[in-house]
Amino acid sequence: MLGAAVGHRAANRKDDVRTVQILLNRRLGRAAAASGRRPDLLAEDGRLGPRTQAAILDLQRSIGMAAPDGVVDPDGPTFRHLAAELDPVFSDGFLQLALPAADPDDVARFAPGIAACFQCHGLTTPLRQAHFLAQIGHESGSLRHVEEIASGTAYEGRTDLGNTQPGDGPRFKGRGLIQLTGRANYARFGEAIGRKAEILANPALLATDPALAVEAAGWFWSDRKLNALADRDDLRLITRRINGGLNGLAQRQALLGRIRALYRLD
Question: Would you say residue 1 lies in a domain?
Fold first, then answer.
């Protein structure tokens, strides 16, 4: 979950610092609630400022470290103490830790749909959920991109995608947390959820409606039978089924390792 040390003279990679800040805030929030105070939380900005450093030292003193050093090492007692309090069950907070680069507003928008998607598409084991989250995390750039940046003109006339009418390329360009592309895929997805006419008339819904953006990814996952591959822990083949190749495999692997740790699978 933590790639490198955080603290005084440490690597202080942004995602790692943000992970520590999120975990420290959970502790600060619980302590404030227990005493009836309003929590004075850290900015979860991935920067090791004086308040984050002070919170690390305060934690180390509270757990009885003989010589607090202000460093959170991935294999050290400070991080073990923070991680031990985590509940390995999906939630908004879990999603933020799984994808630390995600904007908190995006986490809040997509977390309910992801939880519903887990139930609808048989993503009912930690390993299946870990693979799904790693893939959507990579494919969407940590929930930032639910619509293909390119115009979609490259898909114009692609009959293999069902693009048979003028303008189908841009109209049915990639959308969703796992992007669906082409009239045929939009039609199959719309039919599966009982909204075919609506989806074909307004395909941008897959980008503007968070629930549909998630459901598109869930439908693709089920359609490609990826739960069976997740059960085999086959990241490479899942990636090929989604991507057509192995683009971004290293990041997908890093995300999977992180989320496996959150679920305590390793």
Answer: no
